[in-house]
Amino acid sequence: MSSAELPPPSPVRQLRLVVAADDYEAAVRFFRDVLGLPEQAAYSGDGDARVVILEAGRATLEIANPAQRRMIDDVEVGRQVAPQIRVAFEVDDTAATTERLVAAGATQVAPPTTTPWQSVNARLDAPAGLHITVFQELRTPDERAALDGFGTESA
Q: Which pTM value belongs to this model?
């Protein structure tokens, strides 16, 4: 693709998911210290106001219609469990990450499962009321794009 064919850069520079955690210390320990999200910044203010911003690698916004949401739940869990918002983290080893997170207090909803789209996904309920997926990609984006049903909406 030549530079003349490249899409214009996005006007959005960062996706930041903001989560209010009743047990702030437990949530920070879980996501920073156990899952391993590096701390980018932390701020405090009057009345014990505190926030920590954790790096989570590349951010994407996945928008799924109700049929896709049901299909993902069926594949990963075998039943409908996901709330409207589910947070997914790509990791190097789904099984080892799941074990670490469960040992740190997460509740396993479904064990690591190989999906039809060639990733290994596990579901957990995590601190701060988050329903999460940890996933390990088994194929590169180019390999996946060659599979039936994969591509882009604009293609």
A: 0.85
